[in-house]
Amino acid sequence: MTAMSEPVTVMVVDDHPIWREGVARDLTERGCRVVATAPDADAAVRIAPAARPQVVLMDLNLGATSGVAAISGILAKLPDTRVLVLSASGEHADVLDAVTAGASGYLVKSASAEELLDAVHRIAGGFPVFTPGLAGLVLGEYRRLAAEPARRENATVPALTERETEVLRLVAKGMTAKQIGERLVLSHRTVESHVQNTLRKLQLHNRSQLVRYAIEQGIAGGD
Q: Which among 77, 36, 79 has a CA at the least distance from the CA of 58?
């Protein structure tokens, strides 16, 4: 994909030092800027606020504190940071737990260096990325949850304006702020303002959670 104007800043979290440093080196050699590494979940949550990476690339199996807990902890402090899980596990429960905690993407460790680099850039650009086969799992699970009668009846849906709903629908389709602005004839700043207002109203932290919300509420469909 097209290179970004500035290097993507990345934090690498893995409890295996050889793997951790190898991934950091590969990303650096391919144009990313690794601003920090961490050996476990607690260190990741502690270090991330000072490092302020655009993308946190992390394993889930991190010892005493799980990677899922670290995802929530990092995003609570850095809501604009995006988390890309790189795990040996392709178990459905692990994928769903990670995405529910706020991860924007999930790759298994068999991914090539080129696939990983592409995923980091896509995640930084606001696009969810999953190992082939896992994206359908995630979407299917959220659609299943959204279809449960009890969930629909008990849901309290905050009032969004017509424009906010329109922008949300396009965000859920994977469009960038620039693309949405061109579609709706709005400035990039106006689109971002609508996104931030929607995040605040829904008490969400990032675009991945917005996509999830749109799917659950049936907003993601249509043209």
A: 36
